[in-house]
Amino acid sequence: MKSLKTKFLFTFILISFHIMAQNADNMALTPPMGWNSWNCFQTKIDEKQIKEIADAMVSSGLKDAGYIYLNLDDCWMSKKRDENGRLQSDSIRFPSGMKALAEYVHSKGLKFGIYTAAGNCTCAKGDFPASWGNEDLDIQTFGSWGVDYVKVDRCKVPKGFNEIKIQQYALFSNAISKYKRPMIYSVCCPGVDACEWAPKFAQLWRTNTDIGQFWYTPVHDKAKWSHVGVDEIIDINTDLRKYAKPGRWNDPDMLQVGNGNLTPAENRAHFSMWAMLAAPLIAGNDLRQMKETTKEILTNKMVIAVDQDSLGIQALKYKTIDSIDVWVKPLQHKKWAVCFLNRARTAKMLKYNWKEHIIYDDLSKREFNTRKTEYKLTDVWTKKQSGTTRKNLNTELVSHDVLMFVLTEK
Ligand code: GLA
After folding, report:
1. 143, 198, 284, 285 — which has fewest CB within 10 A?
2. Over 90: is that where the pLDDT of 32 sits?
3. Is 97 left (phi over 0), alpha (psi -120 to 50) or beta?
4. CA–CA gap between residue 329 and residue 331 (Å, rounded)
5. Pair 169, 193: CB distance under 8 Å
6. pTM for this model (two decimals)
7. Catalytic site residue from 73, 74, 148, 153
8. 46 catalytic per annotation
9. Number of C-beta neighbours around residue 302 at 10 A
10. Is 325 marked active-site?
């Protein structure tokens, strides 16, 4: 009788784990979309400003375009845990507390995300407490506030952390599974090695160090930590496509669209390429004072649809022809997205005869063959029909601009 009971219990536990794993797998069937405070505000965040951002997410149309998560990054917390050892928000900058802020965000039909780190302190200067030794408790605290998304950074880690980082990062997902509230788990342990271990338990993982507000990474000593430019991030992520799939995403970092000195072409190209890479689309600009052109980029429905395509396949870089990259992304309903990206510092002529390029994608096992199938082209930026693959392309692309199409069988 006792052994029957034990068997029953064992089966029950197995089924529960199975259900939990399934839930985690279904949490982000398309790349998460939202906004995060770091790229524009860094350490300077407060309650009033974040509420205004929530309002702006709705009034600007970003929410309707799919940007659902409002994520607080570093520096929301008080330097001291409370008397029960729990993280608490900074009482001056967030006088109403995190639960009230989460409620406000939820009242706008948005979801609420928060930040912590796996080491003793967060990554910003100032020794803000992070979750080392408190992984379970901190997830419980976040859950009790109504958090829907947790980013876990890696800073100020104890010696030897590298050898145990996988177990340490798994502690957060175990805690999330135990706690009933579904939370997206975003691993921020920058490096391509994360692709090998983070998909076991996280919905997204950072593949590179922090994105800067520029196209090219400034010359730096590669051994030192540094911000990376859009151009370098594209290269870092090119060979990682096999790791992306519905529920599991490479994260090349949050968007810089509308920040810094990126030109209009670079902003367009950055957004287009994040969509081609099936990257999370987490805006990082001040939505309260966004230029019309920035808003048009961030809310471009056709580009967002390429990113959010249900097949979840990251684009393949087919080749580079005279500094112009040719990227192709298989989409549902036998469609393709094709993006030509001028990597040069000068304008280039794009001359492309579709029929000369038969592309076989080993990952999706799909062939892009315009000799067999004629496709109609829709230019995602002009939103115009642009003929079919019968006609050669012969057009100028300014430096760092894209020409991007969605192709539908004729
Ligand atoms: C690290 C992360 C960034 C941001 C900052 C906050 O650099 O990679 O995305 O969260 O920390 O301090």
Report:
1. 143
2. yes
3. left
4. 6
5. no
6. 0.94
7. 153
8. no
9. 16
10. no
